[in-house]
Specification:
19 helices, alpha+beta, 664 residues, disordered N terminus
């Protein structure tokens, strides 16, 4: 199992932050790990489209406003005006063929085409329908190039950004994309009819002003270097989506199988019973020759087949039912992704390096439960997790322990706090653990000279300090209540997580703690997460190369009380809130790094998550005949990379399932 970069795709600024919460169907990290932040497809969208994150350009510091083709959060965009294509695509890739993919997440069925509402499960691949004003590149940490917009104008005071819409831009119904449509998209996403996270994500946008049919200005509450990128990455859809022939409108939160009217390169072709969906490339797609689109979207059709579980999914791949599979389970890669077709070369396995930050994946402790509100208890639970044993026995030593919320990046806190970090931490010294002002904590180690026994003895001492003692065959508090909790997961990941959870439960039993593994249907599981009705669960928080407002959604106090928010931990900390405010207001890269390091220190010393593991490669198995660009992106999600930038050197014949009905 690995964390992989599971999502992401179309403008990452938004897809990686916004859609990060849309339907929460989980990223394709580890089939057994839910990425609360973005449904796999959306995350891949972020990664593939602008995996490097959006950039807000050093333009904010410019003495006068001026329109440009691209912006960068810090410094200058890599690609100059007039560039022909991104370096990591093949501009000569042949077009054609049908790519068939399996579930990109734990979702096993879908019941809507609207990915922006909270209820229901969106179909995989919908990110291919929606575009935004800008799109990022996958070989820069933060950059945004015009997509629907052909120039960008950031006001000298940084309090507004104006976009001019490319007059060529068209929706799938042939209508031009107008400023009114962009404003309608923002207003709808901020309304109660959309998932509540959007109101938080776009909360700093005061309003959108239609200047003329092709010009729109976004005004901000305050200067924030991320905001031009955030609004640039907002998905845009037509005002006519949901409009009935008589002029009446279906409520946005009631849209289900009404096909979206958007401007992307693909259209929904057909679908069957919420288990199969086919997209076809729009022959009239307006943006095919744009530099940011050259070499991408090479398949005539992309089909998603949703399988009921991981076993069926793997066997279907071996049987040739779909074309490419991203493997997130180490033991599968070594022991199960084998057979005659692999031996003959009909199926190929290959590992591709990636430079994504790891994000945080681990057992989330719900602070809303009194059981987990003492940091000594949380630290004790961390000490009982034996990663080294799991890596040897189950993972074939393919993983590295996560030791930071920003691991594998320069944003990970190391050593002692810098003066800039201390300036953020000192005002809260009285309320923070003194250890925060020292080195970051090291994760427990059981390799010699360390041992699980030594770790458990330390855990027992911490639990005793917190008022938990062993008596009457259980660990109990002063009121005699036993230490018991539930580890929640969904049925699609049960097979992968069972041996891991079982090992952890055995270690907890040695402390007198009773943990039970509860598995439920994915829909029930997701509902419980949305309402924060759980003790502990495994989740992956997608990586970001440039932290921004999504951190407020994950760790801000206000989000802790918002059902369905990304603050699944339930964290409410004035110190964290202050650091988050400094992070999103950072005007220089140094200020951003200091704020991120300070945030990392506070989060790691809080022991809110029992960190798991990550891999620095994407493991992909695929059919012979598929090809990819010689130059790899730096920051990308595997599934989105395949659907967006691969091609068939030998196009495959089209074989589509016959839909039983499109009436749902």
């Amino acid at each position: 199992m690995t964390t992989g970069s599971r999502w992401v795709q179309t403008p990452r600024a938004l897809w990686c932050r916004v859609i990060h919460r849309l339907s929460r169907v989980g990223l394709p990290v580890v089939p057994q790990v839910v990425s609360r932040v973005v449904p796999h497809t959306w995350r891949e969208a972020c990664a593939a489209a602008l995996c490097g994150g959006f950039v807000l350009a050093g333009l904010l510091a410019a003495p006068a406003a001026h329109a440009v083709y691209a912006i960068a959060q810090y410094g200058e965009p890599k690609y100059p005006a007039g560039f022909k294509h991104f370096d990591y695509v093949n501009p000569d890739a042949p077009k054609g063929g049908t790519l068939v993919m399996a579930n990109p997440s734990r979702l096993t069925s879908f019941d809507k085409f609207n990915p922006f509402t909270l209820r229901g499960n969106p179909a995989p691949g919908l990110e291919m329908l929606f575009e935004s004003l800008t799109i990022g590149s996958s070989d820069e940490v933060a950059s945004a190039y015009g997509l629907l917009a052909d120039d960008i104008n950031i006001a000298p005071d940084g309090l507004s950004t104006t976009f001019h819409i490319n007059p060529r831009a068209r929706f799938s119904n042939g209508d031009p994309v107008t400023a009114d449509d962009v404003k309608f998209s923002l207003d709808t996403l901020k309304s109660p009819q959309a998932a509540p996270q959007f109101a938080s994500i776009f909360g700093e946008i005061t309003r959108a002003v239609v200047v003329d049919p092709h010009t729109i200005r976004f005004e901000f509450h305050q200067r924030n270097r991320e905001l031009p990128l955030l609004v640039g990455s907002m998905p845009v859809f037509s005002r006519k989506w949901g409009m009935k022939p008589d002029g009446s409108r279906i409520a946005f939160d009631q849209l289900a199988f009404e096909k979206p009217i958007a401007s992307g390169p693909y259209l929904i072709d057909q679908y069957d019973n919420g288990r199969t969906i086919t997209y076809r490339r729009d022959p009239n797609y307006w943006g095919a020759t744009l530099p940011v689109r050259v070499g991408t979207n090479n398949f005539d059709r992309i089909v998603y087949k949703l399988y009921s579980d991981n076993v069926a999914r793997l066997e279907a791949f071996k049987a040739g039912e779909y074309d490419a599979m991203v493997e997130y389970i180490a033991r599968n890669w070594v022991r199960r992704d084998v057979g005659k077709k692999f031996d003959s070369g009909e199926l190929i396995k290959r590992e591709f390096p990636q430079h994504n930050g790891t994000g945080m994946q681990g057992f989330i402790l719900n602070l809303r439960r009194p059981l987990f509100q003492d940091v000594r208890v949380r630290k004790a639970l961390d000490l009982a997790f034996d990663f080294q044993w799991l890596n040897r026995q189950l993972f074939f030593n393919q993983y590295t322990r996560i030791d930071s919320f920003f691991a594998n990046t320069d944003l990970q806190a190391k050593g002692l706090p810098s003066p800039g970090e201390l300036a953020l931490l000192d005002p809260w010294r009285a309320k923070l653990d003194p250890a925060v002002f020292g080195p970051p904590p090291k994760q427990p180690d059981t390799d010699p000279p360390g041992s699980l026994r030594a770790n458990l003895l330390q855990a027992r001492a911490l639990l005793q300090q917190a008022g938990w003692t062993y008596r009457d065959n259980a660990l109990r508090n002063a009121q005699g209540q036993p230490f018991e909790f539930e580890i929640l997961d969904d049925s699609s990941s049960e097979a992968a997580m069972s041996p891991i959870v079982a090992t952890y439960i055995r270690n907890l039993q040695k402390l007198g703690i009773k943990a039970t593994f509860r598995v439920s249907d994915f829909a029930v599981y997701q509902k419980r997460l949305d309402s924060f009705d759980f003790d502990t669960t495994t989740i992956r928080m997608p990586d970001v190369q440039v932290p921004g407002s999504e951190q407020i959604e994950r760790y801000g106090s206000k989000a802790a009380d918002t059902p369905g928010s990304d603050n699944i931990i339930g964290l409410k900390s004035p110190a964290v809130d202050a650091i988050l405010k400094a992070l999103v207001r950072a005007q220089t890269l140094e200020q951003l790094v200091d704020a991120t390091h300070a945030l990392d220190r506070v989060l790691m010393h809080g022991y809110y998550v029992i960190p798991q593991w990550y891999s620095a490669t994407h493991r992909i198995a695929f059919k012979r005949g598929l090809a990819w660009p010689k130059t790899l992106p730096l920051y990308y999600g595997a599934e989105g990379w395949i659907t967006t930038m691969w091609w068939y050197a030998q196009p495959q014949p089209l074989q589509l399932p016959q839909p039983q009905s499109e009436a749902h």
